[in-house]
Design goal:
Blueprint (H helix, E strand, L loop, with lengths): L4 H6 L8 H9 L3 H7 L3 H13 L8 H24 L1
């Protein structure tokens, strides 16, 4: 896996630390461990799916879904990042 340059150079986790390991855990079928590693994984996957899929097929509520998933992803990432320091 790719090393986190922020953690390597500064010794502090970045908000994206754990994403690669979480995806690897998903591929191995370890869904709870993936959530524990990086909780935003379950909002990122549908978000990217909608962003890619809406280019090919018209989705009725794509803009609303995109906004909701984007906000929830940011909230999860920031909450997880803050909880790492507590």
């Amino acid at each position: 896996m790719l090393p986190c340059l922020n953690k390597k150079l500064l010794g502090v986790d970045c908000p994206g630390c754990g994403l690669q390991r979480s995806v690897a855990l998903l591929f191995h079928g370890e869904f709870i461990a993936a959530f524990q590693m990086y909780p935003a994984i379950y909002t990122l996957i549908p978000l990217f799916g909608i962003l890619i899929f809406k280019n090919f097929v018209k989705i009725k509520y794509a803009s609303i879904l995109t906004i909701i998933l984007s906000i929830s992803t940011v909230v999860l990432i920031l909450t997880n990042y803050i909880l790492k320091f507590i």
